[in-house]
Amino acid sequence: MESRPLRYFVAVAEELNFTRAAERLGISSPPLSRAIRRLEVDLDVALFERTTHSVALTPAGAVLLEEARIALDALQAAERRTRRAAGPEPKLVLAVKADGGADLLDAILARYSTDPAARPVAIHLCEWGEQPQLLRQGEADAALVHEPFDRTGLDAETVTVEPRVAAIPAAHPLAARDDLRLADLGIPHGELRRYLDPRAAARRGMHGLAPLLTLVELGELVQLLPESVSVRYPRPGVAYRPVPDAPPAVLAIAWPQQSRSQATAALVRAATSLEDRGRASMIIETGT
Which of 83, 102, 132 is the last residue of a domain? Predict the structure, then answer.
């Protein structure tokens, strides 16, 4: 199976409209339709249900869409990593959140530098939730990322585990309490994920810790954060209170499943072998 028919298929599957997909691909509709028909013949399955007014994926088409995205990302990643390896000074690219602390990163890199397989590391600073896609597209070889995240095509190991705190306005009545429960914050267990998932913060237009804490100060937001944030980002208008029944903040190091890089494996070993993983002062990214 070649990559071009897969790219054509993904465009149609995402647009569910042949005309829009053709415009997106920069081709005309007839050759796009013929390419999809040939793909269906080659696979001996129907990928789309077509009517005069609509296009919908069949169950087989839905499976191929998921697999095709992974395959195309892998091809793109292979090209980028190959070009990077051919550079004058090959480097391992590590994606980390832009406003994270540096202590853990320094400790990981110091441990990594003692491994015979180590090579120079380039740090790719990114926003919340960007790391998994950077790995899948070959723009990074490894990433430090908080759970939960999309693990499609990735492997991961735990680096640190720490309690969570609630960030609330300092003037809020709950700030007088020593600790809080999820029920005190009005967070149902069924909706907990959106308070922990960094992609949820990005969807709300907050791409860093500073704007998030500003909204907390203004009383527009209550947020669950790793305990280390209260140490690294004290603010007069924000009170941090422990939430014992909230799940812990888990920081992981992730890398592509297909990776066979000894340098990446060495970095994973360095990140997962640090002592005192729970130290709050050694967290690299905040997460939500």
Answer: 83
Domain stop point among 52, 83, 114: 83
Closest CA relative to residue 146, chosen from 100, 203, 77, 206: 100
* Containing structural domain, residue 13: 3-83
3 state DSSP class of 142: strand
How much is the pLDDT for 252? 94
| Structure tokens, 277 | 């993983």
Number of domains in the chain: 2
Q: Are residues 50 and 105 in the same domain?
A: no
Q: Which whole number is the average pLDDT over 237-262?
A: 92
List the Cα angle 176/181/186 in 5-degree steps. 95
H helices present in 113-239, as ranges: 131-136, 193-196, 198-203, 209-217, 228-232
Residue 218: which of 270, 169, 288, 272 has the closest Cα? 169
116 and 75, same domain (yes or no) = no
State whether 17 and 114 are in the same domain: no
106 shares its domain with 68: no
Q: Which two tokens stand for residue 199?
A: 């992609």
State residue 282's pLDDT score.
Answer: 40
Calpha distance 173→170 (Å, rounded)? 8
pLDDT digits (tens, 9 = 90+) for 172-185: 999 999 999 999 98
- Convert the pLDDT of each residue in 203-230 to its tens digit: 555 557 788 888 888 888 788 889 988 8
Torsion of CA 117, 254, 128, 94, to 10 degrees: 10
- Number of other residues whose CB lies within 10 A of the CB of residue 211: 14
Q: Write out pLDDT tens, residues 37-91.
A: 999 999 999 999 998 889 999 999 999 999 999 888 888 888 877 877 777 777 8
